[in-house]
Batch of 2 targets.
Target 1
Amino acid sequence: VPDGSARAALRIVLSYDGTDFHGSQRQSGRRTVQGELERVLSHLAGTEIPATLAGRTDEGVHAAGQVASVTDIRPAWDEIRYLEALNALLPVDCGVARVERVAPDFHARYDATWREYRFRIWNGSSEPLARRQTWQRRGAIDRSLMDEAARRLVGTHDFASFAGGGEGVPWSQRHATKRGTTRTVLMSSVRPLSPWWADRRDGQLIEVRIVADGFLPRMVRTIAGVLVEIGQRRRDADWIDTLLAGRDRRLAGETAPPQGLTLWRVGYAGDLPDDGAGEHE
Amino acid sequence: VPDGSARAALRIVLSYDGTDFHGSQRQSGRRTVQGELERVLSHLAGTEIPATLAGRTDEGVHAAGQVASVTDIRPAWDEIRYLEALNALLPVDCGVARVERVAPDFHARYDATWREYRFRIWNGSSEPLARRQTWQRRGAIDRSLMDEAARRLVGTHDFASFAGGGEGVPWSQRHATKRGTTRTVLMSSVRPLSPWWADRRDGQLIEVRIVADGFLPRMVRTIAGVLVEIGQRRRDADWIDTLLAGRDRRLAGETAPPQGLTLWRVGYAGDLPDDGAGEHE
């Protein structure tokens, strides 16, 4: 017999197709991931339930493993029941992969120790079946040059040159937090992936994987743009070092578009990032 | 210097996301693949250019390797120029992977010796990032039972039990061609595929692959529905034999929805179907 007064704290692992969301964060009058999730949670609880998301994703960016936390919700259903109820009520472009009961003080954002993003580039002729999940670039790209450059990002650096967005806000206020624009990249590499939509041998699917303790706005998309320029031999791999030293966004090039980007996974104490060896290859 | 009077016959390999098309075949006033292709070809030629498609795909069905033939088009550009012009003018959900100059009597449909379709089933909890390309089914599915059943389809059989569509047309008129409802399945199997949208280990992506000399309307989708019922242990694998012998569509179950289906490849004289060993696995 369920105890009507029992309450639960939940960790919810979410995936979504970012195409039709105005980003992850609640905005009044716009369709967002947080907005949809809170609407459904509030409906189940019969009262307003706020949720916190681990990572902020821009309009058009997808998630395979976004994490939401809810600190105090009634009823205290078990995980499977919440999973099923949420999936029954959420729209088709947002789904729950896992629900876990957690301690009431769990915080999806503050407790995260790392986040992994993946960015996918289709280097070949037009691919309609992959357009919502890849950045499509024609013309030769040397993947090993991209990988060499990507690996130079590993370590603790000031990533100011890779921080986009926030236009109109004075620079000094945009990153006015304790750590400023310094982040620690734990892993950064570029790998081939098998195209899933066709047996295409006349092109290559390239995946950029980056794991860090945190990311600045548009950081992965700026990195993806820089790596592609290096792969196209318009710049050398040591351009990365110049950008890290320069600490000025105007030094970097084009920001890659959002549809290639997926928030892949969020790590908490005890979670190790996957090195991905052998996957999809 | 190009000769303005020279004409070309073309084989065009097309891919498309079927979500927003009313199927492949031209229909007045509706957005179809043939309609879009002919519009663009006619624009390039300055005169009406009909195109023939190798395979008829229903509303919502995708193609990775649909083939179109054009028997007589001017200018006689080279393949790359046509590829680029077509991709520049076609909508984003339809793209050209290859253009080849062929003999003027080449016919995409009549000259095809086999066609390959693939149908993808995500067996796990809700997956928004794969909803446009998979049929999502919860509950245990035994993939090896599906594979055992799929292999029973290989050979020349009367597939009347697997022919859907054409409601309202008397049965006798629907398949009133020389070969009626008999087709030869060259290959039929069920394999695991790595999910491309996330590291999901709490579900399985199942791919049905079928190569045949031809397909009846909704044949692959009816087969996919039957195979899933067998994988769910609601029927035995020898149900396939009963259906083949019964030759009545009412014997089979649910038709799987279109979004899981892709026309993968079309073979012509000399082309061998790929056995796919090791791919994506």
Target 2
Amino acid sequence: LDINLKEIAQRLNLELVGDGSVEISGIANLIDASATELTFLFSVGYKKHLETTSAAAVILRREDADGCAIPAIISPQPRLSWGHVAALFDREPVPDGNIHPSAVIHQAAKLSENVTIGANAVIESGAEIGPDSAIGPGCVVGQQVIVGKNCRINANVTLYHHIQLGDRVIVHAGAVIGADGFGFEFDGATGTLVKISQIYSVIIGNDVEIGAGTTIDRGALNDTLIGDGVKLDNQVQIGHGTQVGANTAISGCTAIAGSTKIGSYCLIGGAVGIIDNIEIADQVEITAKSLVSQSITEKGRYSSGTGLMQSKDWKRNIVVFKKLDKLLRRVRGLEAKIR
Amino acid sequence: LDINLKEIAQRLNLELVGDGSVEISGIANLIDASATELTFLFSVGYKKHLETTSAAAVILRREDADGCAIPAIISPQPRLSWGHVAALFDREPVPDGNIHPSAVIHQAAKLSENVTIGANAVIESGAEIGPDSAIGPGCVVGQQVIVGKNCRINANVTLYHHIQLGDRVIVHAGAVIGADGFGFEFDGATGTLVKISQIYSVIIGNDVEIGAGTTIDRGALNDTLIGDGVKLDNQVQIGHGTQVGANTAISGCTAIAGSTKIGSYCLIGGAVGIIDNIEIADQVEITAKSLVSQSITEKGRYSSGTGLMQSKDWKRNIVVFKKLDKLLRRVRGLEAKIR
Amino acid sequence: LDINLKEIAQRLNLELVGDGSVEISGIANLIDASATELTFLFSVGYKKHLETTSAAAVILRREDADGCAIPAIISPQPRLSWGHVAALFDREPVPDGNIHPSAVIHQAAKLSENVTIGANAVIESGAEIGPDSAIGPGCVVGQQVIVGKNCRINANVTLYHHIQLGDRVIVHAGAVIGADGFGFEFDGATGTLVKISQIYSVIIGNDVEIGAGTTIDRGALNDTLIGDGVKLDNQVQIGHGTQVGANTAISGCTAIAGSTKIGSYCLIGGAVGIIDNIEIADQVEITAKSLVSQSITEKGRYSSGTGLMQSKDWKRNIVVFKKLDKLLRRVRGLEAKIR
């Protein structure tokens, strides 16, 4: 890409301050940026690095621009501008619109125009791939799967039978969509766990991104639903029949059990656990590694867990934690005596 | 499937109440069921939905059947009946008994009768696949692996060399069985971690189900053992040399370290952590996201963690948690003074 | 392998005590070892099992050798000797140096001498595979990826475009390196999350081992860096732009968010969570399932969480935990009154 700062400002429709003729070769953070790279000031706390950065230019808020010694683009939301600029410098290979000859495509599968199918991918009977979508190498697309238009399914993804994906869905490598939910019932007569067939499906909306190694199970008594604009990080687990509301973002390694309803515009941290059969309201934020063991009916920020401490201190404290109930009663007893 | 309610009752050997001639097209939950679907009442708490359901019929317990306005099948254990009925409506493709021509099968591999091998699967030297078993597309079955009869290995599964699976084992997509356990020893002379070869294997019993993305490591000084009837959900991790007793069920994202022995008929919740070299008795239940940091010698239900709360309250409480030991001593001091 | 105890002692350059002519067929733990197997005494706590072991011989420390009734090899660090001995008995198939005819290798990929490419692997344009390295069946190696020498990439691994691996790197099945980091910014104008292209890469040093199902994301404003000698267990998640220092070991299912710097020689337990944008010093140890929510500036051992207890007791205690702040104030009140 051959672009100068002025052209970037024009593309973003933002104000340029300083020399716009500098050629921009890429983007980088404030500390590592080289003399031909554009950088960003996201928060005032990093302003000290702006004084020493080698960057060619910076995107920052007007209120942070005072005293800036390098050319700048003024943005009301530098992180959003970052999103717009980064795409210009992305080296990610573009799908070539070819069906690789090593791919195994069932004659009863339907491929729309400009579909890319990678090497050794497998497309099974009745599957439909929408226009401009790309299926990566090594993917397995099961029977009757529907993939919308302009989707990007990366390598080695598995889509089980009858799954549906909307438009502009990105799925990262190794994700598995539509495996059986975890459903068993104990049969006292045989002393074994009887499998409950998971006969429903997974329906994924438009503009969803699904991380590497993430698993979304098919439903048992209703479909698992992932709303429009949902973003799932890597190694997330979504149980059978669970619903995730539109534009909710869920960070890595979070485990969500079955039949739970999560609202829209939630921000769920990494390594969170959410139990089954509860409801979480819209705009709920859950901090990293919390356990959500009951419904949340009001928006807000929620947490669980204990703070990190040195292990030797922690051991003393958890001994007391195990007797907290008794400690409370001892305090009550004292209060009664000295009332 | 073309079946009416009376035929379903007969297959389940259960009592029918009301009109058995209604054609059943599928199953669904109480709220979503349509006029041709069968539903279930699992607990009395949902009985209000029975009054408004559009379902054609319901399976419920005798004590919940009073006043039921739709045809019903009486079951002592509706969830178990659900397991039996759901299988009737499963659209999961049945293995076709074919070896796909794109599969790469070593000449020294042994395939029994009626084995299905999916497209682009790889079966290495010395592997044995039992009768009626199916290996999904993109799977890699390593050297000397033994797969029993009537197993179902879904797409993109990796079985490392020398692994053994019993009969009727289901493995979901992306699972990895037999990777090296995590074994290193620090060598002070070089300042590096020296790898300890993981020379043992993984032995999996009969009727085991293994979830998508689950990983089970091979042993270092003894085999990793998964007992008969064990059910592992998605993204479970089983460390090297660990044993899981028969009919134990482990929910998603639970991590179990090495050389630990877990009993039979345990119910282990999601996102639980279990450390290495401990023993857990039979019939132990662990609630979601607990850490098991010592052996459990008696059956029962165990937990760890703190309850979820609003983050601002949580922050105040964890400050106190870090001083719990001191708080206890202050209470003791007060008690001494006002004795 | 046909080797006797004396030859093993010579290979390890360690002292032999007793009859060295016994043929050793393999290694096993103290309890399970058969009469032709070599075993190990790692800690004095297991010495009682030494009296009853059926093993042919044992490797132990000099201070534990007293009264040992079987032939022994004296080692200052038996676990390290185990590492050296185990490799002798490893049945792991050795790469055969062949390019499987079913592999799909782009004409613009570069394969060095003695490279092994497994069946149905895909090597894309511009990828370079160093000498003596092996790419397993079903792997996808993206465009411009560089793999060093003597690497072992197991089955069904995905390496995204432009990733770099050093020498002697082992990657286990199903791992995904270089998927997009989780980067989005909320656009109030559209009410949606805008994707931030993740344009940097992942750079992995020498002698790194990466577990099954582990995911390492590519960076957004700088490369994700995995130092020399780092060992990552299964299902670990490394966020975009994060750095892991040399010779750090991270156990299974640990989730590390983005832009965090982890020091060298750290030992991070299983199922730990580490938030974004913090720094962890060298030689820090984190116990299993802890949440690291702030930087750690000094070496030492750190923990969070509560101890495991019976669920009924736990429920009572977490009620008090939620009021800890108030409890502290009640104790202060009492102290004020009886001063």
